[in-house]
Amino acid sequence: MPPHRLRPVLEGRYVRLRPLRPSDTADLQRHANDPTIARFTTVPYPYTLAHARDFIQQSAPPNALPLCIALRATDEFIGMCSLMDIDPPQGTAELGYWISRLHRRKGYTTEAVRLIIRHGFQMLGLTRIYAGTHPANQASAQLLRRIGFTYEGTTPHFRPNLAGQTIEKYTLRKEDWAATQAD
To answer: Which domains are delineated in the chain?
Structure first.
């Protein structure tokens, strides 16, 4: 079994990344039902309970590691942080994340992204993690730059629901990340 299929639980100071559970259905629906999330991700809007149930049931694709962001103190679901399109021979994966409107600008997303990046580089053997942001999503772009991602330019969006739009591409190489960990 590939290591990314083991469904880890990653603990931070304020958040925990863990696999989704059926008990997360209502919180997933409530938090994902946000037009801002739909604008910048592949999450549909409106986001129904049926969407949430289907997503949880199908949240274990073989080349992805979708983990929910939960508050460590309460284990409440507040968002998603995932590595997708994991390609072990190439050592690459795409980073994706979103967090509920109520939990933005509190450092939770930054901590979650740092946790999954560390897991990707240390446990999955990745050598490069890439991410794309909508040009209007400056908070996401700032988060990626703060963590050490390098801006690589714009490209047409490759996800069907965002066809015709461009994304800003960012990359983090393992050696660049490792250099920041020594500080």
So the answer is: 7-181 (3.40.630.30)
